[in-house]
Amino acid sequence: MTALRGLWPEVQDSCTSLGFMLLLVLFMGLARVVTQQQLHRFTMTHAFVLEFLATFQLCCCTHELQLLSEQEPAHSTWPLTLVYFFSLVHGLTLVGTSSNPCGVMMQMLLGGMSPETGAVRLLAQLIGALCSRSCVSILWSLGLTKYHLGERTFACRNPIQVDLPKAIITEAICSFIFHSALLHSQEVRNKLRIHLLAAIITFLVYAGGSLTGAVFNPALALSLHFKCFDEAFLRFFIVYWLAPSLG
Asked: Which residues, by range, are in coiled-coil regions (predicted)?
């Protein structure tokens, strides 16, 4: 009983973080509904807002997931379970958006998206990534849990634990595997496809997380490691922007 009482504050903090992520998903869902109703006639504005909301949701949730995973780094089962669950959530709620510059570039190369639309979506992802970082920083400064520290997002916690060539290969391979699965699972039933992609994301995070964080998303990397880009731009540009794009 004493042990349970000792664990209860940590359980409360974890539940608070999970509640924040689920409320965020719900709020973004409502915002998408309003966008569909009010802006469907304005093609570019509609595409921009939807991509912004999707990227904002993905980045905010990943910030919180990263925070939770750092509390017990020796036990990877719980963080990986959360990665799988929220990959499913994003897959169900972010239909029609990519939240990933690599996905937009792939569609442009395949002729499925015009350069103008692609540029609008890329801009929306960039702004969404930066806004999510600011939003999370403000939320954490409120100290809702003992994990939330306002200054946390302003420090560079370098996730690259290997030398540069290995880091490049890791991010490129992760991006290649994910986008190959995305491309070749178009004919799979949607319910099964979402689980398949969530499983692949979870596997890639498990396999490459200890090496580079297995981000394979330039917009997400910018949001998570903005300070690191400021301090070592070339290294992070190559690993988190160039390598996933090549992959």
From this structure: none
